[in-house]
Amino acid sequence: MNIIPTLLDGVLLIEPKVFGDARGYFFESWNRKKYEALGINCNFMQDNESCSRKGVLRGLHYQMPPYTQAKLVRVIHGTVLDVAVDIRKGSPTFGKHVAVELSGENKRQLFVPRGFAHGFVVLSEEAVFAYKCDNTYAPTHERGIACDDPVLAINWQLEKDQWLLSEKDRKNVLLKDAELFDYEKKEYLL
After folding, report:
1. Is 61 a known active-site residue?
2. Of 35, 62, 131, 183, which residue is the catalytic one?
3. Residue 121 sits in a domain of what CATH number?
4. Is residue 183 flagged as an active site residue?
């Protein structure tokens, strides 16, 4: 497995070792011991999967304590642009983001630790997106940041008129108005 550090400390791009032949392919999408050796020490509690069509943009989502979440995300079929944003006020990379292409073809995974907002947009005609979470979904603690916040300046690779947003995501606030994490207090790790 190949680990590629990103601009954001703790956000890791993972390239699993894929074994392929005339029959197809095989790879380990999760192995607790191997990932712990890489510093990913999560007790994943929940697996989620979504299927979305081109232009669907989900995010930027996160949850407040005590329901903060780390995620290990990947694409089973299709292609997405996956984005993690540092929302730990006081962090050296606060407000910065990482954007990577994940696809069923490249089999890459992105580890998004607690303290980051996460979102993705579907670039292919359809995509099946899968992710592990280390905490349960808590709607009362869920928050969102506007995907088109000019301060974040995320290039989603699709024109805004191609985006398909949920009603909930249309109401996400700008970073300056969002409830954020305190980098020094590290309450997002609770």
Report:
1. yes
2. 131
3. 2.60.120.10
4. no
